[in-house]
């Protein structure tokens, strides 16, 4: 019964210090690069192109020296829903009414068409690539680097009234207190158990949620009080918000960063220039001809 | 005449609200640059309110406050005032902002726009002063409470303040953490930083140049510690106390003493003839009055217990390694050990919250490893009170909260009511007066007692308490100790883990000492406290009077080995024909 200990695993944005090339890049490079790749993968439509994209992302995971199963861990919670979606898409004849999509197989209302096969590949490849990319960012970048990077990127927008400094501060403090809150919750659950409450691990989610209800009030109260104390401490330490602060953390944008960004831009643009649509058409017609024989 | 660093004139502060609270009622106080001032007072005497006027976190309702000549009422002065005065708060967790130690230390200087080229050097200097440069890349939540508090001090030092205010900054720390903070404070003072320290610990206050005593928002006493601690009776009336050494000196008829050196010196000087030879058998004699060690039956038996947190993951952390621990029916067993020694982990095994990974835990004849053992029944047999239990009150009303445990057991309502009444009365909270009070409106000491009642309402045979007196003022602390004493007399077995060696000394017959997950000493309280060097090596300390006793013994006074109480020392000295001599000598208190 290590029920209580599970809470110790709560870490948003697990960082895995392997010291790889990816780790050493400027956080701004990683944020912008991630943004570009995310955009490319979301916009891209061709199945073959997305498979290539997924391969590229897997290459990045290897480059970051992160164990593949560890990186794929983020996929696990979403897996049942993802598989359900894929099954629905596969079986309920996607594009049945378009002329190019004759069913390969059908029974009652269910049918599989080349287009649905394509759609399923698109769905799975895109989703996996997105999850891998985002966890790759947190696996290779510390919270504080992320906050400083985001702040630096937002700073030009300060003239338009975007409070870059404050946003970064809010982000850092939120993440700073996640483990503290988890510890507090663990303490409360144990205190309840010690007073005779029946707290069992592994029960169904409804039961688990119901066990959490009574501790929410004290958790909120202590959190509020912590918040008040923190505000006071920040004020005492001279924080007034807004610009006018100096920065201890120095961002360094080096040649490696230029190189990395250049490669990412080439790859992202490449995904659109290479006629993956035609490739898809080609293997889809191949699929149809195999099925008709 | 120079402008003092702090000048308060007729300072009043009233917290507004439906029932306004007058926290400060006319304080006039000046603190010169370079002074080390301790502020003491019972809970609610206005200490923290006073501190918050020092850096303009609060503004006077009436009267004025000047910091380095700047009036706190003018908002334009605040930035400069806060740069001059930095503050460290009681809760280490609530004042660290960043996710990395070094960046947290830089937070203050960043706010005051210290040039970026200068920041690394300031951070390094501050972290080296508190001895945490090696930890600079770690996230704060993985540090011990003592380390977090040192990070907070480093964060204040990096601003280069002229005045450092410590608001009960040592209340949550173990003896080693406390000693480290006090060392840093002395070092800073030697370098010219002015210090104002708010504390409940009288022996900490004794180290200051000046002690200011607050009572209900007014200055009660103000002077050098020697002078203030001569007023033992007045201090007791304010629910404060004098340091244990000062108290012993007074009972021996000596002038006010603030340190063990001074007391031993005073005794040696006062006694011109060579002191009589020590009697090595004295200790043994009083030992014999204790019940023989193994007659009573063990209600909890822990054998070769080991525990690893996050077992099997790359983050695995061993907390206990082969611990043996036994609690006998009806005794008060003590558990001591520095932060992170595994005390809390061990305590959580005693009621089955943590199952034994390796080794055996037997409670009231039931082996916890046996799947047939009812864990909830074990938790009713062994009541566990966590650290700061007042944070764990679940209900709005005191009565409901105390009834939480009994209600889980589905007893008839009369039975629940009877248990709640008994439990509240056992902790000195009147059932009728308190059952409908909101838990939020209780004072710190009352909240802790209510939390204790919540565990007692299950009528456990064993009560296990983790740091039951941490953060309480002297009066509330004495009250908790009295409650434990009464429970003991009523036949409840007690296990007390504490950083306060005085509490352990006052309550326990037997003590087990843990460090790094292993038992390094176990025995009678007397045996354990007779080894101050051993305790110190493991980040602990014997109670202050145990140190005095061993020094007196070394100087040839007939004090039994391992003595730690004032009664015992006074008695030992008097029965050696010193009594008449000591009592005829008039006390030379400077009043």
Question: What's the Cα radius of gyration of chain A?
Answer: 25 Å
Q: Based on CA inertia axes, which overall geometry of chain A fits?
A: flat
Strand order of the largest sheet of chain B: 6-7-8-3-9-10
CATH topology of the domain at 6-230 in chain B: Rossmann fold
Structural class, from helix and strand content of chain A? Answer: mainly alpha
User: How helical, in percent, are the residues of chain B?
Assistant: 25-40%
Elements of chain A, N to C (H/E): HHHHHEEHHHHHH
| Class of secondary structure makeup of chain B | alpha/beta
Separate helix tally of chain B: 24
As an assembly, this protein is heterodimer
Largest sheet of chain B: 6 strands, mixed
Q: Kindly state the mean pLDDT of chain A as a whole number?
A: 81
* Number of helical stretches of at least 4 residues of chain A: 11
The N- and C-terminal alpha carbons of chain A lie at a distance of 58 Å
State the strand order across the main sheet of chain A. Answer: 1-2
The Rg value of chain B, from CA coordinates, equals 25 Å
Summarize the amount of helix of chain A as a percent range: 55-70%
CATH class of the domain at 6-230 in chain B: Alpha Beta
Largest protein interface, residues of each chain: A-B, 54 and 68 residues
Would you identify the CATH architecture of the domain at 6-230 in chain B?
3-Layer(aba) Sandwich
Structural write-up:
The complex is a heterodimer of chains A (293) and B (591). By secondary structure, chain A is mainly α. Chain A has 2 domains: 4-161 and 253-292, no CATH class; 164-241, no CATH class. Chain A has helices at 21-24, 27-43, 47-63, 68-72, 79-91, 114-140, 143-154, 164-194, 205-236, 255-273, 276-292, and strands spanning 105-107, 110-112. In chain A, strands 1-2 form a two-stranded antiparallel ribbon. Chain A is flat and about 80 Å long. The termini of chain A are far apart. Chain B is an alpha/beta fold and 591 residues long. Among the domains of chain B are: 6-230, P-loop containing nucleotide triphosphate hydrolases (Rossmann fold); 330-356 and 372-508, Rossmann fold (3-Layer(aba) Sandwich), CATH 3.40.50.300. In chain B, strands 6-7-8-3-9-10 form a 6-stranded mixed sheet, sandwiched between helices. Chain B has a 6-stranded mixed sheet with strand order 16-17-18-13-19-20, sandwiched between helices. In chain B, a hairpin with a 2-residue loop joins strand 4 (62-67) and strand 5 (70-71). In chain B, helix 11 runs parallel beside helix 23 and helix 16 (413-426) packs across helix 18. Chain B is globular. The chains are: A mainly alpha (293), B alpha/beta (591). The interface between A and B is large, with 54 and 68 residues.
